[in-house]
């Protein structure tokens, strides 16, 4: 079987990292890079997600898998993949866009593997939660705690999402009821691993909220986030409480969330509750969020290329056996995992 993989957005921060990791682990794969600008080699393809007429080169190059690492709000690439029976993996969509794309895709005739993922933590939260308990249906509650450093290398997509959505409510879930909440409110004190210690964490929207409740049927799901700077964490909460985000322009909000450093760790913690008690799994990416997201995308890609999976719609954690996902993460040199 051919292994022709196209990374659309492959010249972005996450896209370049995906290409680097995927090439080093799978030298037999043929990897093409899709970008709006012409490149220097025959593997560089001019593809603009907003210009579907540029997609003809995808069929010309006999692409087996499209890996989308740039936001395609109108789902042009998804539609093309389904129409042309090409495997598709999207690691970019924020919650509202993922919900819209999934609802549309469910109504189509699917003759390839269509995979939606969460850009935060690379869509591996569900898989790691499954590694803590034999049956996902036994999980009564999942709490996810994210630690993000303003020193981390960051692309503009996550900053743009926060700028566009920070003043909008999103849903968290309790006993299968959705409750509207806002970012950076409802403080919860949490003791983070890897030497971080006790921090105040606030509401944060990631697609895993929707995926874990609506797809995996876990009744109660919440996500909280803290920054490495306690002052910045407090300040963003104050801005939300005083409704300052509501009066700032989109440009001003992008300036607030658009900072990027030279690299730092990223950490997230999953706390699950079953009738048997609670367990916690902690993951640290010493190279930060972009490296973790890219590695997760590579692991999903490898499962699609190597395993026999029926043509259907998947969420990325569903591609993996829980133990094999945990083992793959543990083997990677910049990932540390603790289970308690």
Automatic annotation (TrEMBL):
Domain of life the protein comes from: Bacteria
InterPro entries per record: NAD(P)-bd_dom_sf
Sequence intervals crossing the membrane: none
Organism of provenance: Chryseobacterium soli
Designated name of the protein: Saccharopine dehydrogenase
């Amino acid at each position: 079987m051919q292994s022709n993989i196209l990374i659309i957005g492959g010249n972005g921060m996450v896209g370049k990292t995906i290409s680097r990791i995927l090439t080093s682990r799978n030298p037999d794969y043929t990897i093409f890079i899709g970008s709006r600008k012409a490149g220097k080699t025959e593997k560089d393809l001019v593809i603009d997600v907003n210009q579907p007429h540029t997609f003809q080169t995808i069929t010309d190059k006999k692409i087996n898998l499209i890996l989308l690492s740039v936001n395609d709000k109108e789902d042009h690439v998804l539609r093309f993949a389904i129409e042309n029976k090409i495997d598709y993996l999207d690691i970019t969509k924020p919650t509202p866009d993922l919900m819209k794309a999934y609802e549309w895709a469910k109504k189509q005739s699917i003759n390839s593997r269509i995979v939606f993922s969460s850009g935060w933590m690379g869509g591996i939260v569900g898989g790691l939660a499954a590694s803590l308990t034999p049956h996902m249906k036994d999980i009564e509650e999942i709490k996810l705690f994210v630690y993000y450093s303003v020193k981390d290398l960051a692309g503009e997509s996550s900053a743009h999402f926060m700028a566009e959505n920070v003043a909008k409510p999103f849903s968290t879930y309790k006993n299968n009821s959705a409750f509207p909440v806002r970012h950076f409110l409802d403080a919860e004190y949490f003791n983070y691993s890897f030497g971080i210690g006790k921090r105040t964490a606030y509401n944060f929207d990631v697609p895993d909220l929707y995926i874990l409740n609506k797809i995996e049927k876990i009744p109660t799901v919440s996500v909280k986030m803290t920054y490495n700077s306690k002052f910045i964490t407090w300040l963003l909460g104050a801005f939300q409480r005083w409704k300052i985000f509501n009066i700032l322009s989109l440009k001003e909000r992008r300036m607030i969330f658009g900072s990027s450093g030279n690299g730092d760790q990223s950490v997230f913690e999953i706390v699950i509750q079953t009738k048997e008690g609670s367990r916690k799994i902690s993951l640290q990416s010493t190279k930060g969020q972009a490296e973790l997201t890219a590695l997760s995308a590579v692991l999903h890609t490898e499962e699609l290329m190597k395993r026999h999976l029926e043509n259907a719609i998947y969420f990325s954690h569903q591609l993996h056996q829980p133990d094999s996902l945990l083992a793959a993460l543990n083997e990677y040199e910049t990932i540390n995992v603790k289970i308690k």
